[in-house]
Amino acid sequence: MDKAALQMKLLSDVALSFTKPGNFQDQIQQALEMVGRYSRVSRIYIFEDSPDKSYTSNTFEWCGPGISPEIENLLEIPYEVVQSWADMLQKEGRIYAEDVRELPEEVRAILEPQGILSIVVYPLIIRGSIIGFLGFDDCSEHRVWSTSELELLRTITGLISGVYERQRSYLELEKREKNFRSMFENIGDMIIIADMQGNLSYTNPATERHLGYSRQDLQAMNLIHLLPEDVRGDADEVLEQIQVGSISSRIIPLRCSDGREIQADARVWHGTWDTKPCIISICTDITEQQAALSLFNKVFTFHPNSMVLSLADSKKFVEVNNAFERIHGYTRDEVIGRTNAEIGYFVDQVQANMAGKELGRSKSVGNYLLQVRHKDGRILDGLFYGVQLTIGSKLYNLTVMIDITEQNHMRARIEEQKKRLEYIIASTRTGTWEWEIATGRVIINEQWANLLGYALEELESPFSEDAWYAMVHPDDLQDVKILLEQHLAGETSYYESEVRMKHKGGYWVWVSDQGQIFDYDDEGNPRWMFGTLTDISQRKQEETQLLNSMEKALKGAEAKTIYLAQVSHEIRTPLNIILGLNSLLRRSGLSGEQEEYVRKIQTASDELLATMTNIFDFSRGETGNITLEKHELRVSKIVTESIGKFADAAQEKGLSLQFSIDPDLHQVLLGDFFHIELVLQNLLSNAVKFTHEGTITLSAEKMKDNEHTVTILFTIKDTGIGISPQIAEHVFEPFYQADASFERKYQGSGLGLPVCRDLVRRMGGTIDVASIQGEGSEFRVLLELEKPRSSTHTLSANNSAATAASAATAAEETRQSVAEEPARTDKQAEIFQGSVETAAQSKLPAKDAAAFEEKLTRLEKSIQLGEPIAITEILEEITAAAKGEALLNRLLAEIRGQLRGYNYDAALQLTVRLRGVIGLQLPPPGTSGSSC
Question: On the chain, which terminus has fewer CB atoms closer than 10 Å, C or N?
Fold first, then answer.
């Protein structure tokens, strides 16, 4: 199923969940869970604002796996603390940050302690007013949301806003209806309702209070029983007069339960109660008339529904309550003494007159739906109740209006949403089913049948659970039943399975079958389950094709890696021989033209070797076959070796090649020496290639020093041609070339920087570039290297100080030696312009230095002459003279490695480093390798 279909299904599921019977809180929580699982966010939550908008509180929350809930910690958050939060919701209509560090500091102070990396928030809006907000947190990544995903979240927020609006309207309507009933329950007059034979159906608490009977006693009585015995003779006549409606009001005695009699002003009329004709009577205890009238006035004035008291004959307003002024916009002075027709109160005056006549005839009316005008011209929907009251000697009409404008609008919106939901279900070609669990009866729609090739009438009616099971593939049936039983037992929040079902054409169709219980009986047993059926055959076919393609691709990639490894080995082996022989050839006394040819052979071979290395590493990186290793290393060694390999190329272009090493980077660390060096060499190679004059600098700086790790920043800075902003965005992409033409000035495979980025990422670091076109570039590599667990790998403070001093002295002597010998090449001077803090080194005792220098001089001469047997013998002597010094032995091992690869120049450079470590003078020109 594609992304759009999944989003449409999610909207359908969320909307359906709100149409089912159930608790409001459970519906909201279920919706959050569905959205959270689909969007794979870390946390979804709802905050509701206080009525005065001064603070907000977390009322609902769903958390993904491993995410700690925050709902208990985020209650009554004052907006004055996060005013920018409210401002963004109000002005921008949302809060969206792929990185929360982009948000105001006061907002970050709340979000960052929760581990939130990115966030999306939409306001909950009811009738144009923000009542809270719906938020989506991601604690695992700086997430970038697509436009369709943001629109989906906004749509879901709108759905939930609608549900909140519906819930609040329902609660308000229920409250108003309770208040209306409460008015009659609390009114001081006795309200007595009887059927047409006089049997009492309803009495209010005032009747029980005045007469002393219980409600049960009154419900077993007849109107005649409320009269004293001495007037019961006339009771039949009175009841007959009431039944024909000839008596509307009179003073009558009423008998109390203790035998007392009270005089009551009884107003009697015909009406309906529970849809049946009835006799309604309101009786006023005249002895407490003033107290009852006072109570009525209070109820009237402060009742939440609009109430009007008008004269029955002239229809002029006598009194209106506070709710009337609030709901209709008029003041008391604007309506008292005027009729509803004079102020244009009713939209349909004819309909209102009919209701008035009905009130005059029956003395009470109820459930009249009438539209009225607000003072500003708006039309309001009202549910009207009316009753005629006699106060003193005058007859009044009391009308009560419940404002149901919002409820009607909400019903219209619900109907609209229902139609839209039906259209959505139809457009997604989703079948629906309802399962009556106790009977096994299943109700399916036309689309359900069509998915399996049937017309609805072709399937048995009613469809049954057994018929459903009979269409499921035998291999899938047991899984379906297990999943259903788990949901019915409450072990899962919903049922979902992917199964094969038998098509009418005789073949199997893959479907996604989903459902959820939506109704329970009084004992809590599930009664009804609702679900959907979706054809996923195409998706299953695509999945199979994708798996086959992936398998072929993996096999192809593995074969490519093996092939490239073999090719790389076959090319690099003879290439190393060429490099070694070429180095020997350069020492054989060549003419100027021959020297130039040999130099070009060397340059081309070096470039070819670097290209082969990048191709092989890129291929291994694509297939994940690169293995990172951790060995003991020193940053100074990586820096000096990397610089040394580009000394020739820099000298030929007249460039100043420099390095700088932080004096704090003296300790032994753990890392992949080879791959770190490969990254630096690629970056230095580019710097030399694209720099025509000026300086290239490689520096290493300690950024952090923790208990177990050290963070190091390597910087390669040049004064070359620089990179434009448009090109800088793509330099780390494979095969990218700023100039892709065959005639381009700068050649290359386009793999060096991608290989660098891949290796740095695998080592847990970062790489970036800052460049100004025409001025130069600066590449930065940030790596975190581990410290060895054994203390023997770290120099003590005393040794470090002594060694640093020794290194400084040796470096100063080296500088002086370079300065005193103008015959030495500029390249040598550049190499030794590095910081004096390059290593924490140690010298041999003075008595051994002379013997060591003699052996070292013989070694340098043998390397120049290319005498392998002599080289081997002298190296053994020097190794014995090193007497176990770790740094000296590592340098000797590097010399052996360079000689094995025929890299004689590099070996001679290492002998110069060896002299510096021991504190010996550099050899005279022509005695030692002048190519340093």
Answer: N
